[in-house]
Amino acid sequence: xxxxxxxxxxxxxxxxxxxxxxxxxxxxxxxxxxxxxxxxxxxxxxxxxxxxxxxxxxxxxxxxxxxxxxxxxxxxxxxxxxxxxxxxxxxxxxxxxxxxxxxxxx
Length: 106
Fold this sequence. Notes:
This protein has helices at residues 6-9, 14-17, 36-46, 57-67, 83-89, and strands at residues 2-3, 26-30, 50-54, 71-74, 77-78, 81-82, 95-97. With 106 residues, the protein is an alpha/beta fold.
């Protein structure tokens, strides 16, 4: 699991963490913040990735089961659940946690 912590690294580079995905790979962005989610999606699309955006844990799991994406970029605290719960339940695809608050598994 990759945890991007912009407070520690200065400027986190999401692109560095998705280099393993080839062009046109399917990525799901699960984030409820209305400005960061489209920003991440727009940047991934500009790099040739196929991106789906959803607001909730429930939508993320539905997309995962219906489309089998190559990568998920997931928030920790969403309106209908926590990203950690998804991580504990799923072994695939790889998941990158992205959060605007300090990340703690507890």
